[in-house]
What does this fold into?
Amino acid sequence: MHQPAITGTGVFTPAEVISNDELVHSFNAYADRMNARHAAAIAAGEAEPMQHSSVEFIVQASGIENRRVVNKSGILDPEVMHPLLRARADDEPGLMAEMAVAACSDALEMAGVAPAEVDAVICAASNHERPYPAIAVEIQNLVGTSGFGFDMNVACSSATFGIQAAADMIRAGSIRKALVVNPEVCSGHHEWRDRDCHFIFGDVCTATLIEREADATGPHFTIRSTRLATEFSNNIRNNNGFLRRTRPGHMEDRRDMLFVQEGRKVFKQVLPLVCAHIAGHMKDEGIEAADLKRLWLHQANKTMNDFIGKKVMGRTPTPEEQPNILQDYANTSSAGSIVAFAQHSDDMADGDIGLICSFGAGYSVGSVIVERKSAA
Ligand code: CO8
It folds into this structure.
């Protein structure tokens, strides 16, 4: 068996930013237009008026202040309310692959690894822009990696599930190096017209290079252990799928072809699941709360993260011990915990232990326990 390690990370951050102020302004303009359009039905009591969103609610309920997106103008246009992206020809890079190339290049550079040395690309994300050819194979072609690539989807937990898959292949010896890539274009499958959730998501792409620890040439993180779990729930769901067109009238109500959730239920049900998962993983690895120097959690909601951090550490962790990036990026699905890891791990000392944990639709939860090694 070979010991796997994370030797490089990369984050591609889209250039366009939407603040809560901008988002609420455009949502409220949309609501006013809809109310004016349906004024007669509202006056007759046949339709409910749309209510305004508020910046105060968004910050207090989620902790989100800004989100990065691949297109801002369409999302903020009250007559559009979704990203506007140009159609790409089949011989051009797709959007997800383009984001992935940028993140993978940074991860490879950080590790000092040439693309051709990489044996596998796993494109792990909560939605893929087409079913085939796999986005991972396109990324393999654009980056110039060897071996093979495949796509996988475990919603918000895709990155940690991908890391376990890659780490296990490295342990077993079937590959030496893998890139786990998480291009999350959440803005494309989000309902920006739904007041309950219009503020939640943003776009980003992360990449993690995993290789045999024996091959590492610089500072890295030993992957000590990984653990995954799933438990079926309909409380976070997207019904878009290829069988939809087989049902008459399938385009009439499209709301469920995008992200839908019972946010309160998710909040209540996922917290105990995640806390028990992390506690069990740490116990089996003989890691005490006092041993844990860093917690990189899934970035969906600040209150959720505060609760989990306190439960895991047995006290309120400092912002350095449990870094959040959701205030700047919003929920970027599977990429969130990896953005936190990539941006808040350089300062760790030799032997420091940290835990990456993602959770979300499925339900799914994945944890990765890592140990800092300050030199090869
Ligand atoms: N402005 C003002 N008021 C609002 C707004 C708003 N925008 N939205 C709702 N309200 C009002 C409601 O109407 C309600 O009013 P009342 O009390 O009068 O009925 C009140 O505020 C409270 O509403 P909620 O109960 O909905 O508010 P919560 O406190 O529960 O906060 C959250 C809402 C922030 C959504 C919270 O429930 C939450 O974060 N839940 C957990 C979410 C989570 O972690 N989900 C994981 C999803 S991510 C995932 O798994 C990946 C899926 C794949 C990616 C998809 C990409 C698109």
About this structure: Residues 53-54, 57-58, 61-62, 126, 155-156, 186, 189-190, 195-197, 199, 201, 236, 259, 261, 263-264, 266-267, 300-301, 331, 333, 360-361 surround octanoyl-coenzyme A (CB under 6 Å). The first helix runs from residue 20 to 37. Residues 222-373 form a domain with the Peroxisomal Thiolase; Chain A, domain 1 fold (CATH 3.40.47.10).
